[in-house]
Structures are given as structure tokens and as C-alpha cells.
Amino acid sequence: MKMQHLWKPLAASVVLTLSVTAHAQVSPAEAAKLGNELTCVGAVAAGNEAGTIPPFSGKWLGTPPGINYTPNVGQHPIDPYPDDKPILVIDGQNWEQYQEHLTEGQIALLKRFATSYQIPVYEGRRDFRYPDEVCDIAKRNALESELIDNGMGFTGYMGAIPFPIPSGDNQAMQVLANHNFPYRAYTEEMEKRDLAEVNNNGKVTWGRTTNKGLNIVTAPDSMGKPIGDTMAYSDTRTLLPTRNEGSGTVSIEPVNFAQGERLAWNYNPGTRRVRQLPEYGFDTPAAGTSGKMTIDQDRLMNGSPERYDWVLKGKKEIYIPANTYKLHEEGVSYDELLTPNHPNPKFMRYELRRVWVLEGNLKATHRHKYGKRVLYIDEDTWHGVVSDFYDTRGELVNHAFLNYYYAYDMNAWQAGSSFYQDLATGGYVAYNLFQGLEKGPILNAGNFTKEMFTPAALRRTSH
Asked: Which of 28, 62, 86, 317 has a CA-to-CA distance to 126 between 20 and 30 Å?
């Protein structure tokens, strides 16, 4: 499938502090397509000509009929498609038949681990929808949202993606803004969250944290209001490894990185002191990953986009993780899941989906571990689900995939476990694991305030 070139590249010499507005609003006639030939967040509602992508049904909002689920308490997700079986399995012997729908990272794994790595492909399911309030805000944003500060920020309304129909100048930054600002849980807590670094012989080194997050832009009292200055707050405490037990970090995420910055403070149990971190994000190694994962790889891309020139490469049909309930069910054994070289394919579920392809190329004036990153963003949800990472010499060095599922607690898609494949060593990082724990994510319980995420609160609640 030939990709359409829909973008205008960013100039490498852009000065980020200039306040430049990029007009991106669509006409009322274009916006009227939302909820009709387009879904309410801008995906093509029809299936594809081959019939391998189904039309959007949107028949379910929240918990589907026949499923017994208690929201907001951390119950593990329940599969609404328990009888589905793979319609094809892509492996090291047949991948060339399907390569137009594969990323370079997927192909690299299929070739390297030809006898064990597989991509099980299931029938496409497009049955869940967003709440009407989210759809109404998305339509309003389509008519009014604009990029400002050379794409570092935007105007519009909280509660939905700002650009459901990317248009005009700088569509790449519009798509990236959608990835960063989808409708998601406004409070999220993990009483325990596991992380596993799996080396190339299968040995596992464990990490464990607690995690709390408050997402301001999707809080009930923020819905439909003009976008503000703060996006989110987070609090992470370390339980494992033992040498780091008791350390903690709180951070504040701005909406506009030209007008604000990510602020973070760390508590050190050895000194019992809280100090502000001089830099938190970009390619700083994520704790417990031996450098195999950077902070800005969480959810595949987060934080300031300033170090890259972003180019939109159009849309493509790609096999990506979707409806990944089987992976996140209660009782999935870590021993069975975390096999050598890559996670066990039997727990994975891929579907053929339309994705936006977004490429970031490192600016000559900046440094980062990755010289290029290619992000594949699901058209239906605006979440990045697959990414390939290249070093500064242009060599493919990492392939990552994030497994989303529709969370009945919040009537939207939740980031589940993600896997970061180190193509240099053959090891990988399994991040955000909760399958073997009593509770999964506690979503939208509404029990957090911004005062809980201050340096003083970090000091007071640490020991």
C-alpha cells in the first residue's frame, strides 16, 4: 500500500520560544463528518476494501452485556472476545508474505528469532466507543483548536484530542498532540506495578513500584474547559530492587513545553532529603532497566518533543496490538509470559489497523540516545502502540509495543503492559506488569488532589 505524503516538514532552525499560531481548524462541513463517515475522534468509520479491517460498530459503551465487572477497584480486565482464535500467525517462515503490513522492528524480530517469535493476528474488532461528552468536545476542538509556539502547545478544550481531523500546516505536531492528549483516566493508581528486565538467556531481574497519577485535562470538572497550564501529576515509589527501596519521585507535566517544563523531585531514603532533579525525561534511563528503556519511551513517546524534527509519513495498514485482554487477565503466569528473547506470543493479540506513521529525527543541535524514532499511532484511539528506535548512526536498535485494552472503568483505552526489545543484545524489558498481582490499575476512583504531588507531600509520606 502506497502511503500518502500529507506533511510539511519542520524547519530545523525553528526557535521554540516564538509564539507562532498554526491555523488548523477545519470547516463546519469537514467537522460534520465526525460521527458519520468518520468516528467522533476522526478515524475512518468504514472498513477497508479487502475486508481485513472491519467497519466501526461502536456498539458498546462501558462494560459489554454479559460481563460481570466492578469498576474503579482494580479488577483485572475481562475479555469480551474469549472465543476468538488467530486467523493467521506470522512467523519466521512466512513473514515476507505480509511485510507491507509490518514495521522494520517487527521484521527484525521475525528474522532474528525465526523459530520462536510470532505475531498472532485476530479478527479485527471495533466495537467500543467514547462517551458522548468526549465526542462533543472533539468536534468543538476540530473547529477551534490551534497549534501555538511552533507546535509545543495548542489552544482548545480539555477532555478530548485537540485535532480529530489534522489539517493545514504542521500536521505532524497535531498528530503528536493527539497522541499526548487523548481521553484517558483522570486518576490512576497501581498499588504495585512490576517491571522485568529479561536478558538474552532468560534470566529475569525484577523491579517493583507503586504509582499514582492525576490527569488534570480529563478530570470531570475540567471537561470542556479551555486548556490550562498543567497536564498531569505523578508519584512513583520504589519497592524493588531492595537497594533502591524507599526512593520516590513526584513530577508535574506541563501542557505547553515552550512556556513550561517538566518538574520533578526525588526522595533519597539514605539522606532522607528531597531534591529537585535538574533534568527528568528524554533519554535518562528508566529505573531498573539497565539502560534498555528511557524515560521518554514510557507510552512510547512522552514529554517535550523539542529535540526532534517531526514528520508525518501518512497512514498505513499495520498489524498492531489491539483488544489485548488475554495478556492482562488475572493469573497469567510471569514464568510463562516472560520467555527468553521475547514475551510469549500465545498471550498476544494483533489486528490489522490503520495507523498514522510519525517520524522524529534528532536535531543536530540536540543530543539523545535515539537518532530517529518512528511511532505508529492507532487511528481509532490516537494512542501510540508500536515504535521503532534507531541510534545516531541510523541502525535499528529497539522495537517496542504497547498493549492497550478498553477499560470499562473509564469508557476509553488503557495502557497495559509494554515490551521494549533490545535488538543489540536480544534482551528486553517488560514494563507495567500486573498480571501476577492481586490488583490491576485502579482507574477513575477520584481520590487524588494536586496537593498530594508536591515536594512537601513526598517528604511527608516517605520513610
From this structure: 28
